[in-house]
Amino acid sequence: MAEPASDTLCAICPALGSEVCSSCHGIRYCSKACQKVDWPVHKLLCKKFSKDFSNDKRPQQPEFQFKRAIYFPEEGNGPQYIWLPSSGPSDEGRAVAHTHILGLKNTDLYPIDYFKENAVLHRQIDGDIVLLARIHDLNTNEAMLFGNPNKSLAKIDKELTNYWKGPLLAYGARTDVGWPDQCYDLGPVDLRHVVDYLSVAHSKRSIEQNMYTIGDGEKTRGVRFNCVSDQQICQRTQFEPMDILKSVCDGESELKATVAEKAGFPLVFRKLTFALCWRSRSHQDFSYAENPSAAFFDPGTLLDTTWLDTALRFGNPTSAIDQQMKFAKQMGSLIVVRKDGEPLTPMLMKALTEYAQQKTNEAFESENEPHTLASQVLDSISPERFRKWYSDFLFGLCEDPSVGIHEIAALYDI
What secondary structure letter does DSSP report for 61? Predict the structure, then answer.
């Protein structure tokens, strides 16, 4: 079956967009709930789109093509539509966007990136969206954004100003056509695409985790245990190594990791704030904050018999499994260290996670009374049993061509 066209889909979730904004007619939603999620962003340009930036308001000059672009002034009160002039083509065969229309202070904007997919929605965009900013080359591998925190973005979310500095400009471009069609108009749904891009870029830098990683204290190797959305949207690995302040090892764990403790590896879990790019999103078929693998470390909560007994009593085991995973759906990403301060490698964390999941699945398959499942999981675990299982785990890794020898060798020192 062919994928539905992107302009028929909801701007917030993967569903079909059966509802159209009654004011601008330029964006679709599947429900009032999704429209409400998007309204703080959409309202900033909704009326301007239909009032001042319809096609009949387009400037006409023979030497330029004017296309609707989105501008975020450094000292502004929010994003703005502008008619961006372009001419072309350049020596590279690309249209040339002229930023002089933004004033002398903004003639030094340069392309810093372009994107053709909304990473939050995993959705292709009809063309490329090019992002321009003021940059300062510090003779490093990555040029730095230059300027003050962007006040226009503060109208969307103040967190965005933690990273995005100076003015920003977004315009549409195509590489599969010739001049004069290489630039195209951006509309209301493209504002959502741009905001999602800026939010994902901000979330990848995860400023909030700095409280665990930056400081003068002694550090140990720990793991960032990423939820499903941070893996799929922010492109993080499930178990991400990082140096974490040892003081975290002395704090309380926000997840009762009884499985790891019984296996001989007491762990401290600290929850991270949900990433800006997906925290306000919702969908009926899944939770953006799901971290089912982490939930297996706490069978006492995961296998809470209050709901399990009721579900099975009425002959609905599928409902029981659904309720079982409720615990995991709001877990989010976590910072994890060993209580003893010893290094915690991603591969050891992977082993403990697989072990916890295996023991939980064995309890479910045993067909014992629901109220005994949690204790059955914990009674089946000991340091000796885990080390024996761990040896088999290592042997399996040796036969996996995707795992480097250095990763396997590091596992012996646990």
Answer: B
